[in-house]
Structures are given as C-alpha cells and as structure tokens.
UniProtKB/TrEMBL annotation:
<protein>
    <submittedName>
        <fullName>Transcriptional regulator with XRE-family HTH domain</fullName>
    </submittedName>
</protein>
<dbReference type="InterPro" id="IPR014710">
    <property type="entry name" value="RmlC-like_jellyroll"/>
</dbReference>
<feature type="domain" description="HTH cro/C1-type">
    <location>
        <begin position="28"/>
        <end position="79"/>
    </location>
</feature>
<dbReference type="InterPro" id="IPR050807">
    <property type="entry name" value="TransReg_Diox_bact_type"/>
</dbReference>
<dbReference type="Pfam" id="PF01381">
    <property type="entry name" value="HTH_3"/>
</dbReference>
<dbReference type="GO" id="GO:0005829">
    <property type="term" value="C:cytosol"/>
</dbReference>
<dbReference type="InterPro" id="IPR011051">
    <property type="entry name" value="RmlC_Cupin_sf"/>
</dbReference>
<dbReference type="InterPro" id="IPR010982">
    <property type="entry name" value="Lambda_DNA-bd_dom_sf"/>
</dbReference>
<dbReference type="GO" id="GO:0003700">
    <property type="term" value="F:DNA-binding transcription factor activity"/>
</dbReference>
<dbReference type="GO" id="GO:0003677">
    <property type="term" value="F:DNA binding"/>
</dbReference>
<dbReference type="InterPro" id="IPR001387">
    <property type="entry name" value="Cro/C1-type_HTH"/>
</dbReference>
<keyword id="KW-0238">DNA-binding</keyword>
Length: 200
C-alpha cells in the first residue's frame, strides 16, 4: 500500500500578508545598502528580531512597523498599501484604452495601465511618417524606459544625444531632460514602450 502524500495547507491571508511584508522589508533594506546591523542601529530593533521579520517567522507589531517606516522614511499606510493583495488584471483588446492626437500623427494604446503595487506600464505606440514630437521634460525625473521598435524607423533625441533605430532594435534609457521623437521614413513607426517608475 503506497503512502499518500499530504500537501501542506495553503497559507491564510494573514500569513500571506506577513510573507509579502517580509519580502518588502528585506527589499527596502538591501536597496538602501544596509546590513541587518545597520538597520538595527537606525531603528532600535534588535538584529535577531529584524532577521525573524524578514524570514516571516514572526508577525510585526504596529510599534515595530512604525520604527521601520521611520528608518526608511515611509508612512505606515504607504508600506501596507504596497503589500496588500496585488491585483491581477486581464484586459482584452476592447478594454485597452486608446488615445490619438491627429495633429501629431500619434496613436497610443495602453496595454498595461499603471496600477497599485506595480511600477511598470506598457504602451503600444504608432507614429505616422514625418511625425515630430518633443517633450521639454519628463513627468517624473529619472523614469526608466524600454523601447522596442516593431516596424519602421524612429529617431530619438535624448538630452541632446540622437539615437537612430530600425525595426527590431531596442533602446533602454532613464529620462532626466528633454526628449524628441521623429519618424524619418515613409512608413509609420510602430513600437512598444515599457515605462517604470523607480522604487526602492
């Protein structure tokens, strides 16, 4: 008679929240370049307790979270909002919002809109031949961009430096100043653009 393997029970919502919180706390600490000892000195929480918190071996009290938030320069509400159950959003083509500026020859489809808990949005863009768009500054300094040109040609000027792309090429950059998009060819420039706002 073969033994039946018994699967461990699924974690409760409270346990799952503790696990996400533990991971976020570890991410914040490592992103700051701090050791457990460094954070212990900054927060007044023992190294052993911090270690247990990051391994989700204990549930943090409001007092402990308050000290950790103070050390990281966060509010408690913002920290908890980051680790609440992350949404899963499935958008069909009809649900993906589109925006068009005929005067610029620019069309944009929002494939993955920004939402709480996620730092990246994904856009599908089309620029008509001869299109010219210039932005004097980004909405948020240091935004991370990853552009992949599906078809056509595209010329980007970033902080005065010109990049000429052909179909299949990609360009990754962080935007701090002015940017300019030009389509020099006789066909539209069709590209995907992922934009990420930096998070610790």
């Amino acid at each position: 008679m073969s033994e039946t393997e018994i699967e461990p029970p699924a974690p409760t919502e409270a346990q799952a929240l503790d696990q996400r919180l533990a991971q976020r706390l570890m991410t914040l600490r490592t992103a700051a370049g701090w050791s457990l000892e460094d954070l212990a000195q900054r927060s007044g929480i023992s190294r052993a307790t911090l270690s247990r918190l990051e391994r989700a071996e204990t549930s943090p009290t409001a007092h402990l979270l308050g000290r950790l938030c103070a050390a990281h320069g966060l509010t408690l509400s913002s920290l908890l909002a980051e680790v609440e159950t992350l949404p899963v959003r499935h958008l069909g083509p009809a649900q993906q919002s589109q925006w068009e500026d005929p005067s610029l020859g620019f069309r944009r489809r929002m494939l993955a809109p920004p939402m709480r808990g996620f730092a990246t949005e994904l856009l599908e863009c089309r620029l008509q031949p001869g299109a010219h768009i210039r932005y004097e500054h980004p909405p948020v300094a240091g935004l991370e961009h990853h552009l992949w040109l599906i078809s056509g040609q595209l010329q980007l000027q970033l902080d005065g430096q010109v990049h000429r792309l052909r179909a299949g090429a990609s360009l990754s950059y962080k935007l701090w100043g002015a940017s300019q998009f030009d389509v020099p060819g006789k066909t539209e420039a069709h590209y995907l653009l992922a934009i990420t706002q930096a998070r610790p």
